[in-house]
Design goal:
The chain is an alpha/beta fold. The protein is built from 10 helices and 8 strands. It has 2 domains: about 140 residues, 3-Layer(aba) Sandwich (Rossmann fold); about 80 residues, SIR2/SIRT2 'Small Domain', CATH 3.30.1600. The strands form 2 sheets. Strands 3-2-1-6-7-8 form a 6-stranded parallel sheet, sandwiched between helices. Strands 4-5 form a two-stranded antiparallel ribbon. Bound molecules: ligand BV8.
Amino acid sequence: MTHANIVVLTGAGVSAESGIDTFRDAGGLWERHRVEDVATPEAFERDPDLVLRFYDMRREAIQAKQPNAAHFALAKLERAWPGDVLIVTQNIDDLHERAGARRVLHMHGEHLNAWCTACDARPRWTGPLIGRPPCPECGERMLRPDVVWFGEIPYRMDEIFAALREAHMFVSIGTSGAVYPAAGFVRTARDLGAATLELNLEPSQGTLWFDEARHGPATQVVPAWVEEMLAQAGE
Ligand code: BV8
């Protein structure tokens, strides 16, 4: 299966061993915050400071975290694999990039961008937004996290479906398969003839849609899979 095109979908589980909270595991983000209160446009409308503090806390936390062996293994696959590799991530951290991955598609946005709803600029942003700072482009104080909330349309869906149409293999890593449209990509990939593999700590909600599933911590199952693929390609 060398020179195959691979689409990799990652979720919070790939960053869990870097110390970034997942959403649905014990002690995860949604245990401490109701989605409806912090991750919807209505929540932002209703209580902007609560939402801004939630993202300020997470934006600061991720900057102190480091990529783990799973992020590095995926960056190595992207560099060494003879076919195309596209990493589509649901995560809003930048650990794939800091591990050296060059082509990362953040379908749910990025912690380290702000989004000006006045002029549509998306400036790089590492500090807090709670003080409603002025947009560097237009000066308006209308910056929000550049994050796709529930009920909002994920980014670059056309590019994702174009990559799935060209994919020979779809690999889902560290995601519970709870949120759509990401959770439906495995079915699209299958219907388009791709081989499908789940690498996750435990069976996801969509595990039955995968040809193969390997369960264990990402820092173990992902490097093992990448080494197997590169050996197969004679790299
Ligand atoms: C949309 C950014 C229309 C914010 C996120 C009814 C039925 C079907 C759908 C819907 C419905 N009602 C509403 C919807 C739509 C809704 C949805 O799916 N709701 C769900 C709850 C039912 N979806 C939307 O609103 C989306 N928009 O539909 O627009 C549309 C659709 C198509 C085309 C055009 C328009 C927008 C959703 C985006 C929301 N934003 N994130 C932020 O980060 O704060 S969602 C967020 O949760 C993540 O981004 C991710 O997408 C999602 C799931 O999280 P995971 O990453 O999977 O993390 P989780 O904690 O759940 O699981 C972790 C996994 O890792 C576990 O399986 C665990 O076992 C594993 N793990 C843990 N440790 C490890 C590990 N694995 C390996 N190693 C470890 N060490």
